Amino acid sequence: MDLVSIRIITGDITRLVGFYERATGVRATWPTEDFAELRTTGGTLAIGSTRTVALFAPGAARPADNNTVIIEFLVDDVDGVHRGLAGFVADFVTEPTTMPWGNRSLLVRDPDGNLVNFFTPVTPAAVARLAR
What we know:
2,3-Dihydroxybiphenyl 1,2-Dioxygenase, domain 1; 2 domains; single chain
């Protein structure tokens, strides 16, 4: 079994896709006006409008209602990402911080309030653990 993607449901797909394109530097593909994907080497972030929820199960997902999931992106330079997002991201939850497990992390909220962690392994143990 392979994890293929994480999907976010949003009330404003254009705004949210624009945020992730700018934050990651990855260009989204749009199979329909209600669905976009940002594909990386490690997985895909899918973003769907609220209109797509009815195709699965009406009312099963609510936009801007996540309080448990953190979307994570492995980056080469978390401090560089921080500098690049300054003036663009409205909610920096934490500035770049080196965590006890060896990752330097930057935690922000996307326009829907979802937590997004950009991180870079900085200790030898963290680098080894995340080697691809």
